[in-house]
């Protein structure tokens, strides 16, 4: 019953399907009866993801009955009773499922989140994590870390909670957490963390959010160290959506190290002034040929690439760039970018954005399909010369 969005109720007779092994019930407004899971003891695969507008009723003890369960997906699902709440399911029951190797989960209380990140097993088997509506987030916890702290860092303080050990996580959504203030990104050499496996990152409706990243490491002057760094950070990140996150995010420069990024959507971030800052942070160099020894690689990279001029890796895989309702955005990047895979640029309500990082060498692989925006915005754009303007004018589509 995957994607049967109009299905709202499941009959109680579902509990009579005693031989059932595979059950997929993705439906927006799904309501499940109490006690429905207890008799489905042969279930191996259970997908109840994306049921945000329903009410999944899982009572204490039901999960214990699913000893054969290998895959459970409750990502972006609404439980009638939250994890660890009285009358609701227990994370300890999940830990007791010995065959469980794939977990998608929605966390809606800080107490449940703290219990969850203290479980080594649950962190390892979680592929999708949906954190939302944490209205009980304590004032004493101000930061959420996506990576382990550096030895000399203050990130190990009790004011921080970390997701760094979720080394199999593919998709992370954080939304509607009004008291959450800070997302921290740092790097520890030769260690696999959430940052190396994450593919999709969605951050929505966090009004006081700051994103703090380890600029000291990024300013490492030795290119071979920088190359090692960029190979370990955001290796698989492909899609990033940051929406309605207030005035404290000025740029998202940390995304220059997501060299596989395909989609970037930024919307209603009222403090955003630049997408990528040129404030002394150089993009990572492309890797030298692998047959060359490491010491020679460092020399080759130093000789061929400079901090100021190498921009070929920034957004080198990007296909879709969406910029919407960003009243203070002035720049995507101050230098032209190659955009070898770019298909779409969508700009809406960005009145201060008067220049695109394009020149005659940009998007020249015949991948570009459109540059979409309002006609008055397009007519106010500034170009280095008429050749560049005439190159991209055929791709403009009025909204």
TrEMBL record:
Record PANTHER family: DISEASE RESISTANCE PROTEIN RPS2-LIKE (PTHR33463:SF218), NB-ARC DOMAIN-CONTAINING PROTEIN-RELATED (PTHR33463)
Top-level division of the source organism's lineage: Eukaryota
Entry-linked InterPro entries: LRR_dom_sf (IPR032675), Plant_NBS-LRR (IPR050905)
UniProt organism field: Macleaya cordata
Official protein name in the record: Leucine-rich repeat
């Amino acid at each position: 019953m995957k994607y049967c969005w109009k299905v709202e109720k499941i009959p109680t007779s579902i509990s009579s399907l005693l031989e059932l092994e595979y059950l997929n019930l993705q439906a927006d407004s799904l309501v499940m009866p109490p006690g429905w899971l207890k008799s489905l003891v042969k279930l191996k695969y259970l997908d109840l993801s994306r049921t945000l507008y329903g009410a999944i009723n899982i009572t204490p003890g039901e999960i214990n009955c699913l000893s054969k369960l290998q895959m459970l997906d409750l990502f972006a699902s609404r439980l009638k009773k939250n994890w660890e709440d009285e009358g609701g399911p227990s994370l300890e029951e999940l830990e007791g499922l010995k065959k469980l190797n794939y977990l998608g989960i929605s966390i809606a209380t800080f107490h449940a989140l703290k219990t969850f990140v203290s479980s080594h097993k649950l962190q390892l088997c979680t592929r999708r994590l949906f954190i939302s509506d944490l209205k009980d987030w304590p004032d004493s916890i101000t930061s959420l870390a996506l990576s382990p702290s550096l030895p000399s860092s203050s990130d190990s303080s009790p004011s921080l909670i970390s997701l760094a050990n979720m080394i199999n996580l593919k998709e992370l959504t954080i939304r509607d957490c009004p008291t959450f203030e800070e997302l921290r990104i740092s790097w520890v050499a030769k260690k696999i963390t959430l940052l190396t496996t994450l593919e999709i990152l969605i951050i929505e409706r966090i009004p006081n959010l700051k994103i703090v990243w380890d600029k000291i490491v990024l300013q490492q002057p030795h290119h071979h160290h920088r190359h090692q760094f960029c190979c370990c950070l955001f290796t698989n990140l492909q899609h990033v959506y940051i929406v309605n996150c207030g005035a404290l995010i000025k740029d998202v420069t940390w995304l220059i190290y997501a060299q596989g990024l395909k989609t970037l959507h930024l919307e209603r971030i009222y403090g955003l002034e630049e997408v990528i800052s040129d404030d002394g942070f150089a993009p990572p160099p492309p890797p030298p040929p692998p047959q060359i020894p490491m010491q020679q690689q460092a020399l080759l990279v130093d000789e061929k690439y400079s901090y100021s001029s190498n921009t070929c890796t920034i957004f080198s895989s990007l296909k879709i760039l969406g910029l919407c309702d960003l009243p203070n955005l002035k720049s995507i990047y101050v230098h032209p970018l190659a955009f070898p895979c770019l298909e779409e640029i969508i700009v809406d309500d960005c009145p201060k954005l008067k220049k695109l990082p394009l020149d005659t060498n940009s998007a020249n692989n015949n991948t570009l399909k459109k540059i979409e925006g309002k006609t008055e915005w397009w007519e106010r754009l500034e170009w280095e010369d008429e050749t560049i303007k005439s190159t991209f004018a055929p791709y403009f589509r009025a909204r």
